[in-house]
Design a protein that fits this description.
Layout (H helix, E strand, L loop, with lengths): L10 H16 L1 H20 L4 H8 L3 H13 L3 E4 L2 E4 L1 H18 L1 H12 L3 E5 L9 H19 L4 E4 L3 H9 L10 E4 L12 H12 L2 E2 L10 H7 L3 H11 L3 E5 L1 E2 H7 L4 H9 L2 E5 L2 E4 L4 E4 L14 E5 L6 H8 L6 E5 H14 L1
Parallel strand pairs: 3-13, 4-5, 4-7, 5-6, 7-12, 12-13
Antiparallel strand pairs: 1-2, 8-9, 9-10, 10-11
Helix pairs in contact: 1-2, 2-5, 3-4, 6-15, 7-8, 8-9, 12-13, 14-15
Length: 360
């Protein structure tokens, strides 16, 4: 699901839209059934092997419904039961990707992308089917869409230096990226220090993984994301830190996630007095350690060393964030004016448009 440029639908798409319109009038339940079975197939594909009970929990569907649907998909040769759980057959995989454009059309995702990009002033918005709040496998679909787009802009813009933050959203993009040969050496650097206990989601680990996928080089940044004022000032005097900051600010592309302000503050173990400050000043979104209100004003920045929203280099920014509950956070960060590209999901996109339309 790579999105598209704002050139409008072509003649084939218009014809298909007309057929879908008439089909929905005559047999609306057929469209609903198609979307449901596509969602089940896609969820199995990204989580395979997976049992029915876990699948039902992931999709928040009744076990009886999932059993009936997967039994049907198995008789069609699209799903296969193995000792470890259900897996998608080669024919099933072909069906998933063959239906992709039709599902996008049925859900109006292309129109959704174009309206969001226009209202937010972004160069491109990519919307994948589903809601991360309802189905965790949607993150992998966002990662795949982001990886496809990343390949495109690396070649188109002749990117030579990339900065990446930590987090599951950024990791999903890099994990979905195949090994490619850009034809030049690309340097990948962490955009910030690390926090949390999960090694694979740290900026250092993601930078190394992305460099490996691109056949390029990477640098490590051994600095915690949260520092005391004294420690921060002392580290800024270190030559290695100064060199890393120089490389970060030279990045032509910054890939990052977007979080809920209070949720991210708690994950960073910020003092309660600062969390209260965020709440009082209306902070709703967070990106690169900057906490912003609904109008895009930075109300607080984490004590760290690295890129932040107020000091971003003149680079392209690719944000990856989904789930309906993230809609206000994404809108807040977009209001700062620093975003260029956004990969999100249907749940967040619909919620954002609802808010934007009410404003107008």
């Amino acid at each position: 699901m790579n999105g598209r440029d704002n050139n409008g639908p072509n003649s084939q798409e218009l014809a298909l839209q007309e057929l879908v319109h008439y089909g929905q009038k005559v047999v609306p339940e057929l469209i609903q059934q198609l979307e449901k079975r596509y969602t089940i197939l896609r969820s199995i594909y990204f989580a395979q092997p997976i049992g029915r009970r876990v699948l039902a929990a992931n999709l928040r569907m009744g076990e009886r419904i999932v059993r009936n649907e997967t039994d049907f998909l198995r008789t069609q040769g699209l799903v296969e039961a193995q000792p470890g759980g259900m897996v998608i057959t080669p024919e099933g995989e072909e069906v998933i990707f063959g239906l992709e454009q039709l599902i996008r059309l049925l859900k109006g995702l292309t129109s959704l992308e174009e309206e969001l990009a226009s209202r937010l002033g972004l160069h491109k918005v990519i919307v994948v089917s589903g809601d991360l709040d309802q189905d965790r496998q949607v993150l992998k679909e966002m990662g795949r869409a982001g990886a496809n787009f990343l390949q495109e802009i690396i070649h188109k813009d002749k990117i030579e230096t990339i900065a990446v933050t930590g987090g599951t959203s950024t990791l999903s993009v890099v994990e979905s990226l195949p090994e490619i040969s850009p034809g030049r050496s690309i340097l990948v650097v962490p955009a910030r220090g690390g926090f949390g206990t999960e090694m694979r989601t740290q900026a250092n680990a993601i930078a190394a993984l992305l460099a490996g996928k691109l056949g390029g080089e990477y640098r490590l940044f051994h600095v915690p994301d949260a520092l005391s004022p004294q420690a921060r000032l002392a580290l800024l005097e270190e030559p290695h830190i100064q060199e890393m900051l120089r490389l970060m600010t030279q990045a032509q592309l910054v890939i990052h996630g977007i979080g809920d302000a209070v949720e991210m503050a708690k994950r960073r173990h910020m003092p309660q007095v600062e969390i209260s400050w965020l709440i009082r000043h209306g902070a709703v979104g967070e990106a690169l350690g900057s906490y912003v209100d609904k109008d895009g004003k930075v109300v607080l920045s984490a004590r760290n060393i690295g890129l932040n929203l107020q000091e971003l280099p003149p680079a392209s920014t690719l944000a990856v964030a989904g789930g309906k509950h993230k809609a206000q956070a994404i809108l807040a960060v977009a209001a700062t004016g620093v975003l260029k590209y956004l990969v999100t999901d249907e749940g967040a996109a619909q919620a954002m448009l609802e808010t934007l339309r009410k404003k107008n």
